[in-house]
UniProtKB/TrEMBL annotation:
Family membership: Belongs to the steroid 5-alpha reductase family.
Superkingdom of source: Eukaryota
Domain annotation TECR-like N-terminal: ranges: 5-80
Every 3-oxo-5-alpha-steroid 4-dehydrogenase C-terminal domain range: 155-308
Function: Involved in both the production of very long-chain fatty acids for sphingolipid synthesis and the degradation of the sphingosine moiety in sphingolipids through the sphingosine 1-phosphate metabolic pathway. Catalyzes the last of the four reactions of the long-chain fatty acids elongation cycle. This endoplasmic reticulum-bound enzymatic process, allows the addition of 2 carbons to the chain of long- and very long-chain fatty acids/VLCFAs per cycle.
GO biological process terms held by the UniProt record: sphingolipid metabolic process; very long-chain fatty acid biosynthetic process
An annotated Gene Ontology molecular function: very-long-chain enoyl-CoA reductase activity
Pathway membership: Sphingolipid metabolism; Lipid metabolism; fatty acid biosynthesis; Lipid metabolism; sphingolipid metabolism
Cellular location(s): Endoplasmic reticulum membrane
Gene: TECR
Protein name in the entry: Very-long-chain enoyl-CoA reductase
Length: 308
């Protein structure tokens, strides 16, 4: 069998970093990354981005050399993605922080509201409901990370964990400070507003979990298989008929319900920022679905039925 040759150049300087001879034509990009690591151990496979063009897109690990538009000597361009950290570690850190931080404010530990309020409790039922809802949300996320989610990429840049934790931890502290404040006042419309918003929160949490389970079942463990998600017998998944990312739809709905229940401005701002970011993600996934699947349902929108 005739072997191929692969030269790897620095995408910025065009300096030759590595020359691999006798590479099997059936070799995948993942295997080429492993070969590259042998000569440059500081760049482990997760740090590597290999491309056909210096400014092009990263090749997928599962791409096969002989199926790429290259000759017998393939030229690939390398970019260092920086230090990496596993998605599981990132998610667990992101979600454990808000859970712990919120409880510090709920139990009114010293140095937050003043000495006379240390370890006191709010007299308002909505404050206790808010703590249960907030804690449930993040406990659910912590459990879903190792037991439900299956990630297409094993790692992400280490620098992202600082940005993400600042966002989640910062907003958790901000909203918790006001909701658990001794001077907090209940929502304008009292128990009716709280009950309605609580129902919205619970329904959306169930919907979000249902979508995560449906997406999990589409990808066998250890694979990167991608399929078109369709509704199942679970009514919460029927939202797939109208949107590509109903998990984001339900997530936004949960926080809207939480904002209405607590009538707290920081929660409303957190919901708005989250909706903006999830819309960007949803649009990206929607475009990816349309590009990858020719028979993708045309009626679907990224995140909001018929609108967005």
């Amino acid at each position: 069998m005739k072997h191929s040759e692969v030269e790897i150049l620095d995408a910025k300087t065009r300096e030759k970093l590595c020359f691999l001879d006798k590479v099997e034509p059936q070799a995948t990009i993942a295997e080429i990354k492993n070969l590259f690591t042998k000569s440059h151990p500081q760049w482990y496979p997760a740090r590597q981005s290999l491309r056909l063009d210096p400014k092009g897109k990263s090749l997928k690990d599962e791409d096969v050399l002989q199926k790429l538009p290259v000759g017998t000597t393939a030229t690939l361009y390398f970019r260092d993605l920086g230090a990496q950290i596993s998605w599981v570690t990132v998610f667990l850190t992101e979600y454990a922080g808000p859970l712990f931080i919120y409880l510090l404010f709920y139990f009114r530990v010293p140095f937050i509201y003043g000495h006379k309020y240390d370890f006191t409790s709010s007299r308002h039922t909505v404050v206790h409901l808010a703590c249960v809802c907030h804690s449930f949300h993040y406990i659910k996320r912590l459990l879903e990370t190792p037991f439900v989610h299956r990630f297409s990429h094993g790692t992400m840049p280490l620098r992202n964990i600082f940005k993400n934790c600042t966002y989640y931890w910062g907003f958790a502290a901000w909203m918790a400070y006001y909701i658990n404040h001794p001077l907090y006042t209940p929502p304008t419309y009292g128990a009716q507003q709280v009950k309605l918003a609580l129902a919205v929160f619970v329904i959306c949490q169930l919907g979000n979990f249902s979508i995560h389970m449906a997406l999990r079942d589409l990808r066998p463990a250890g694979s990167k298989t991608r399929k078109i998600p369709y509704p199942t017998k679970n009514p919460f998944t029927w939202l797939f008929l109208l949107v590509s990312c109903p998990n984001y739809t339900y997530e936004v709905g949960s926080w809207i319900g939480f904002a209405i229940m607590t009538q707290c401005l920081p929660v409303a701002l957190f919901s708005l920022v989250g909706f903006t970011q999830m819309t960007i993600w949803a649009k990206g996934k929607h475009r990816s679905y349309l590009k990858e699947f020719r028979d993708y349902p045309p009626l679907r929108m990224p995140i909001i039925p018929f609108l967005l």
